[in-house]
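Support case: flavin-adenine dinucleotide complex. Customer-provided input:
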Amino acid sequence: MTLPAQAQIVVIGGGIIGCSTAYHLARDHKADVLLLEQGKITSGSTWHAAGLVGQLRSSASITRVLKYSVELYKGLAAETGLDTGWKMTGCLRLATNPDRWTEFRRLATTAKSFGMEMHLISPEEVRQMWPLMDVSDLVGASWLPTDGQASPSDITQSLAKGARMHGARIAEGVKVTGFVMAGNRITHVETDQGRIACDKVVNCGGMWARQLGAMAGVAVPLHPVKHQYIITERIDGLAPDAPTLRDPDRRTYFKEEVGGLVMGGYEPDPQGWVTGDIPENWEFRLFDDDFDHFAQHMEQAIARVPALEKVGVKQMINGAESFTPDGNFILGPAPECANMYVGAGFNAFGIASGGGAGWVLAEWVMKGEAPLDLWAVDIRRFSGLHRDRNWVAERTLEAYGKHYTVAFPHEEYQSGRPRIVSPLYDRLKARRAVFGSKLGWERPNWFAPEGTAAQDIYSMGRQNWFDAVGQEHAHVREKAGLFDQSSFAKYELSGPKAAEALEWICANRVVREVGRLTYTQLLNSRGGIEADLTVARMADDLFYIVTGTGFRTHDFGWIADHLPTDGVSFRDVTEDWGTLSLMGPEARDILARVTPADVSGAALPFGSAREITIAGAPVRALRVTYVGELGWELHTPLDQTGAVFDALMEAGANLRPVGYRALESLRLEKGYRAWSSDITPNDTPFEAGLGWAVKMKGNTPFLGRAALEAVAGRPLTKRFAGFTVDDPAAVLLGRETILRDGQPVGYLTSGGYGYTMGKSIGFGYVRHAEGVSDDWLAAGRYDLVIAGTTTPARLAMRPLYDPEGLRIRA
Ligand SMILES: Cc1cc2nc3c(=O)[nH]c(=O)nc-3n(C[C@H](O)[C@H](O)[C@H](O)COP(=O)(O)OP(=O)(O)OC[C@H]3O[C@@H](n4cnc5c(N)ncnc54)[C@H](O)[C@@H]3O)c2cc1C
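Agent response - structure generated as follows:
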């Protein structure tokens, strides 16, 4: 094919992801698409995939994406005439110990919450379904009847044909060598066969996506890892429709293939490949068989399926696949480049994800907004830290090694730490802080009392920090606590058009008098919540914006994308400022002792943002709280954070440092929503109970207003609600099913323990197509399904703690 001189959208990569994206761009959007593949279609990672297709993930949206894949694979042959090899064999997952069984009970509840069928079955039932298996060590298994398997190459060829049928052009044997940029925008794609002008580029380059991204200044933090499986000769008695099998306690998986078995695994000592570029001519290439490394899987697999001992190995596949530092794939608009989108890093579930990932990525490319909450896979969950190849490699190998380990709640990664520390790190460590890490920052999760181990000891029930966090919680409620929140993302927006720009971007009225701070959501065009943050007006044309640590790149990107091209200057100032949150009934007394400023309620009312000094350091004192107590976020130049901390600690006999786990408990009692779990792009402020923070009165236009106006006054079909559970043994983690009068009506988006209430607390959306009115809510009887057990719960539509907000305004 002769290369065209231009195309609206150039998709790079002819693996399953590129072909699916091209297919959806052409089919759903009639876009002018050109797909470029340096070798042949499927010749990267796709051709050698094992083809297991699972659907359940811990995010409802990602589960929806994977379910979409299955629907697509079922029907694609009817459209294109090319079969995908889809077989709905179902999937068995085996449990051999009580922790794994608890994990499965929780997963089965998640499946129920997400509308997926999943059963827990006995070892005997497993034996009947899979007679070749030794079930003697099993506690039980989970059974997902709608999972299955497919042929990776066939799906991809079918998608490629479908893409062509809808008008996409596919050019094989064309290598992208660079980009012509105008500022941060790609104007042309350079190839070994000429230059192509385009509006947008979609980087579906598999494990090459990192180096392709780098050509446009884009970081795609993935790392290629060697992954092996074997294909055996025929095994007598193996049914052609045998369910796919995952045996996580033995770190292995199985799938029937032409009468034999495909068997592979995830080892704790994975073999990373290059941290530099992928070698040239890596088309349809494999590594040499590595039986030594594979022996650990073989041994476990034989213990599970003894027939394997006597059957020959027909072929070993040792292929490269890209993995990521958190085990999720990478999708969406590259923050560094105005018109490159990425779909890569599929962590050995690219076949399962391919159909759905192509669908949502195509929507994103065409509309500039994700069609649903894709935060778990959003490329903007990373930061500058992820440009460090060695760090990415180290963390990715840890994530790979954990693929099949029991996922304990609250578990932290260990590799590549400490990476970014606040100036208080040593001080807090000396006070026995146990740290977690968020976007590279070390943050105190809790403080271990003297005589106890200063480390997390994970378990499925209450963990070793439970009581210590309870003491921290009580201290904040009764006296005062100091939180090191220096990792908060912070931006400054300035310039003559700053106020006007924020008025458009923010749903709340943030353009108020100088010295005012406002809590606001940023909405997408559907009225969904894209960000949740505070905006402080420090001067007529200077706004200080603070948001959560993990949302740094995302929120910056969202704001930057919606700013005018002139009249504003927008800067990320995260590392310029340390943040100490002084919270609790004694906060004012303590603050008064360290600053000459008037800290009375009249001088510093709730929602004020003032410049004061503490220990000679300039401080932006923001009167706001996430814990439901009187308090301030004190922002001070990073290098003076230590001095401010020391002054506060000295002045407050009753002041103690407090960690993030207590913060979580405190905010649950107060009913404060957390973005990414409680409030997401799938939810409007009305549904979230945040309508009070939206400037619907008056006619000020803002992003999302039209969508909200379209639904204003109509009955809400879902509403954010709180629940408490009296059962002291209940452990709420999120995703538990909400039952109203015995019927599923939603699931928890957050769960935890409220120490002041002495109860477990959960939040989630209650859904009802005919409308969720106050009366309908109040008339119901509620239960939560917690790890498979139906447990009575009480509905709470107001904050459990301080429902009138009197304490925070004191
Ligand atoms: C051994 C093994 C077993 C697996 N088993 C499963 C499984 O059972 N289930 C499952 O869901 N997943 C599985 N996977 C994962 C799956 O194979 C991948 O997630 C998936 O194939 C990734 O598809 P992709 O399109 O992102 O990448 P690729 O298939 O690698 O496609 C990227 C394409 O981009 C092209 N490209 C790169 N650079 C350029 C350039 N400069 N110019 C033009 N073209 C370029 C490459 O040639 C390549 O064809 C397995 C992977 C391995 C290694």
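Residues 12-18, 36-39, 43-46, 48-52, 175-176, 204-206, 208, 212, 227, 229, 317, 319, 321, 344, 346, 348-352 surround flavin-adenine dinucleotide (CB under 6 Å).

Case will auto-close in a few days if no follow-up is received.
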